């Protein structure tokens, strides 16, 4: 199970980093979303993986740790708000600069940089 | 008065929420609320400073949850100093903003208060995850403030700033996950104890966590190679916002001082990241000096001066003797207030120059050329570090505390380059002015706010000795992390 979770986190973070390095705002936002998914999973796993265990001491042999779940909840809420803000900002950038390039260049220029 | 510790977080939090409820058309009411809350921070911060100056470390356990398990706020001399500095900087910036800049977008006052809440919280918290949360609070408020008022330049700088900081937050979370996974605690004092006992694989993971945090704080503090967002964002932000942001890079510096002076202070990880910090600080200092010389706009120039001060401070921190830290804190107070004042001054100059705005080209002379010229002269002397103002005192103290010829070379060489850049800017703006600009009177309160910030530099020079002594006392307490650890864990024990 550890290997599977590790591969999942690696895939999410890898794709996130790749998309974040793109030159258009939409892939960047998607990339940041994937990145934060990967990171949230990582924080969740920091309390160790255990199946079918109650997070109460004394009720199971190896109680699961409830704190990372609380941490991850905070991180998800914050990440969600930030993504929403970034979407609005990107839309405004599109409106003000007539381009969805992260540097606000005109379309001709940005195509050159894309390649 | 044990509850006073949480006041610097609660006052702006309540004021910020109240401001969201207040009717948008009643700008006066909002200004009054905002100014009152910011004014109230000053006596509170002074009270906290007095409390901390006794040498006792105040621990506030939220909800009375015992120390290593619940979240704690900790007031030692370092946090008290930073909270006081924030309050002193925020009031003039808000007075300046209340003269019309706050009308250029909705919710200026609310965001300003929430920003103060985040900054104060980051200075006071004794918990690593709570530090992350307060970072996010101050960041999301700063996104709103950086974009306050419209314009393509702001949106462009804003997108870079937001994306970079979101990636920074992701890295911070990874670091926290590693920290919790290896030690099972996020309380800084408890973490310091646990991390010094680690060995083997866990030690490597903890080292990884420490270095990741280092990158995150370096991004906040605008260290090389993570400072490129700063000039674009700060130069395009509204003046009072840029002035308040002068303290934001210092949050990064504080976080490095706190986390590496406390959480990673013992065991095998002591001195983690100190050597690269030294090199990177010097590179930052040198490159920022070149940036000052190459800046084509006044706002950009001040932003690079801010980055330069970050390099200067970080080198002092990397030296990490109590004397160096004391001198660095003196320089930190000086550079924050002076850079804040210069951002306001740049805006005053811009207002009288019509279309040219703050571009460094000969144009119409700015309104109130005499007054502004004198202020610019004083600010330039202070920020470059020439006698008789506080920059000189700070630099001498730093050079005495950090006896490394390489640092002296960068400090003095950088100062010289900045001096050339500033004198060129000053002569272009004030001497080569052709004809008069728009006939307008300088706005009184705006000028007063600028003068108030710039007047701190002669004050810091005149009372140089007591201020430096206070900074050394702060540094003395910082260099004994055992005091902090005992205070926090002891508070948890006694609550049993």
Fold blueprint:
The complex is a heterodimer of chains A (115) and B (496).
Chain A: H1 2-20, H2 25-45, H3 67-97, H4 107-114
Helix pairs in contact in A: 1-2, 2-3
Chain B: H1 7-21, H2 27-53, E1 58-61, E2 72-75, H3 77-97, H4 108-124, H5 128-146, H6 152-183, H7 188-195, H8 201-221, H9 229-236, H10 239-245, H11 248-263, H12 274-294, H13 298-319, H14 322-351, H15 369-384, H16 390-401, H17 405-431, H18 444-454, H19 456-462, H20 464-478, H21 481-494
Antiparallel strand pairs in B: 1-2
Helix pairs in contact in B: 1-2, 1-4, 2-3, 2-4, 3-4, 3-10, 3-14, 3-18, 4-5, 5-6, 6-8, 6-9, 7-21, 8-11, 9-13, 10-14, 11-13, 12-13, 12-17, 13-14, 13-17, 14-15, 14-16, 14-18, 14-20, 15-17, 16-19
Describe this structure in words.
The complex is a heterodimer of chains A (115) and B (496). Chain A is mainly alpha-helical and 115 residues long. Chain A has one domain: Helix Hairpins (Orthogonal Bundle). Chain A has helices spanning 2-20, 25-45, 67-97, 107-114. By secondary structure, chain B is mainly alpha-helical. Chain B has helices spanning 7-21, 27-53, 77-97, 108-124, 128-146, 152-183, 188-195, 201-221, 229-236, 239-245, 248-263, 274-294, 298-319, 322-351, 369-384, 390-401, 405-431, 444-454, 456-462, 464-478, 481-494; strands at 58-61, 72-75. In chain B, strands 1-2 form a two-stranded antiparallel sheet. In chain B, α3 packs antiparallel against α10 (239-245), α4 packs antiparallel against α5 and α12 runs antiparallel to α13 (298-319). The model of chain B has no long low-confidence stretch (mean pLDDT 88). The interface between A and B is medium-sized, with 34 and 27 residues.
């Amino acid at each position: 199970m550890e290997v599977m979770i590790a591969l999942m986190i690696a895939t999410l973070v890898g794709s996130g980093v790749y998309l974040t390095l793109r030159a258009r705002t939409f892939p960047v936002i998607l990339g940041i979303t994937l990145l934060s998914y990967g990171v949230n999973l990582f924080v969740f796993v920091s309390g160790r993986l255990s199946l079918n265990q109650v997070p109460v001491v004394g009720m199971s042999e190896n109680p699961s740790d409830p704190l990372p779940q609380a941490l991850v909840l905070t991180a998800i809420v914050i990440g969600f708000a930030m993504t929403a803000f970034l979407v609005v900002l990107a839309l405004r950038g599109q409106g003000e600069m007539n381009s969805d390039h992260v540097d606000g260049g005109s379309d001709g220029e940005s195509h050159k940089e894309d390649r | 008065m044990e509850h006073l510790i949480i006041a610097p977080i609660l006052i702006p939090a309540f004021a910020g929420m109240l401001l969201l409820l207040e009717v948008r058309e009643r700008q006066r009411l909002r200004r009054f609320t905002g100014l009152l809350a910011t004014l109230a921070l000053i006596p509170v911060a002074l009270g906290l400073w007095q409390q901390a100056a006794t040498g006792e470390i105040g621990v506030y356990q939220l909800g009375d949850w015992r120390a290593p398990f619940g979240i704690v706020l900790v007031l030692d001399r370092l946090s008290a100093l930073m909270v006081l500095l924030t309050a002193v900087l925020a009031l003039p910036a808000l007075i300046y903003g209340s003269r019309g800049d706050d009308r250029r977008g909705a919710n200026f006052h609310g965001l300003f208060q929430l920003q103060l809440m985040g900054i104060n919280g980051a200075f006071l918290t004794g918990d690593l995850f709570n530090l992350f949360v307060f970072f996010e609070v101050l960041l999301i408020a700063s996104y709103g403030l950086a974009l306050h008022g419209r314009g393509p330049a702001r949106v462009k700088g804003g997108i870079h700033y937001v994306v970079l900081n979101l990636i920074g937050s992701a890295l911070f979370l990874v670091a926290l996950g590693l920290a919790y996974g290896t030690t099972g605690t996020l309380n800084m004092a408890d973490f310091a104890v646990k991390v010094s006992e680690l060995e083997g694989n866990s030690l490597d993971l903890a080292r990884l966590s420490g270095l990741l945090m280092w990158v995150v704080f370096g991004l906040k503090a605008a260290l090389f190679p993570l400072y490129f967002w700063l000039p674009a964002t700060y130069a395009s932000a509204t003046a009072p916002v840029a002035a308040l942001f002068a303290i934001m890079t210092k949050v990064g510096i504080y976080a490095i001082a706190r986390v590496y002076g406390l959480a990673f202070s013992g065991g095998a990880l002591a001195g983690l990241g100190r050597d690269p910090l030294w090199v990177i600080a010097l590179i930052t200092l040198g490159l920022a000096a070149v940036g000052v010389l190459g800046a084509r706009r006044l706002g950009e120039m001040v932003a690079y001066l801010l980055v330069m001060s970050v390099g200067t401070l970080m080198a002092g921190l990397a030296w990490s003797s109590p004397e160096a830290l004391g001198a660095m804190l003196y320089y930190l107070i000086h550079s924050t207030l002076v850079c804040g004042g210069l951002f306001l001054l740049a805006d005053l100059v811009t207002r009288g120059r019509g279309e040219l705005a703050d571009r460094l080209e000969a144009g119409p002379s700015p309104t109130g050329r005499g007054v502004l010229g004198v202020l610019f002269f004083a600010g330039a002397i202070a920020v470059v570090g020439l006698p008789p103002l506080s920059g000189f005192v700070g630099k001498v103290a730093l050079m005495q505390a950090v006896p490394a010829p390489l640092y002296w070379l960068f400090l003095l060489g950088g100062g010289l380059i900045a001096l050339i850049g500033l004198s060129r800017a000053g002569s272009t703006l004030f001497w080569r002015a052709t004809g008069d600009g728009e006939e307008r009177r300088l706005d009184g309160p705006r000028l007063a706010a600028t003068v108030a910030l710039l007047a701190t530099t002669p004050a810091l020079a005149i009372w140089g000795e007591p201020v430096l002594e206070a900074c050394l006392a702060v540094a003395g307490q910082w260099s004994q992390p055992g005091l902090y650890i005992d205070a926090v864990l002891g508070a948890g024990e006694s609550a049993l």
